[in-house]
Amino acid sequence: MFITAQRPARWLLTALVGLLCLASLRVPVITLAETDLEIGGTAVVAYADGDDVWLRSAPSYDAAVMNMVGEGTTVAVLEGPIEADDGSLWYGVDAGGTQGYIVSDFLAAG
Questions:
Q1: Structural domains in the chain?
Q2: 10-residue averages of pLDDT along the chain (110 residues)
Q3: Of 32, 80, 101, 104, which residue is least crowded by CB atoms under 10 Å?
């Protein structure tokens, strides 16, 4: 069997197509929740892609939304982390005089 120029070209084409397929896969970005915020200290609303974050009446996604807090806002950390039934972690905060809960995914150490 003779090696022709066509065989290496097929191999190279197959390899390039495979690499393009791998490169097109989206890798999810995982945000790690802050779990070491200092009680009595401050935290900054973060990781929200410029959106507002919900300040809730209880540490749960099902709790009523009391207010919206803008990304970049500094909040006072009152308590936490508190683990909800679904495993999410929450902090009790004071945001501009309104006390409530923000999920730890959107808080960074101040």
A1: 42-109 (2.30.30.40)
A2: 56 60 48 74 95 97 97 97 95 97 94
A3: 32
